[in-house]
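HTH cro/C1-type domain-containing protein
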Amino acid sequence: MYQITLKMARLNKGLTLKEAAKIGGITPRTLSKYEKDSGKAKFDPFMRLVKAYGVSINQIAIGKENEIMASLIENINKVVA
């Protein structure tokens, strides 16, 4: 099973940063930080976001966005090669 970033989940749901931050009970700036490194997200806002995005917590990759994206690209390249 592939995992996606917190930002990808938000975008897949069609929410802006501001809309999603309101759902999470946090500021857009805080959500932006969480999207860059989901490992720093506080549990309650994170769970509200995951629920609003309609994904399982297991579908969200935890960690730094740039590292997650590099791993996803590497896995995709293995599949298509």
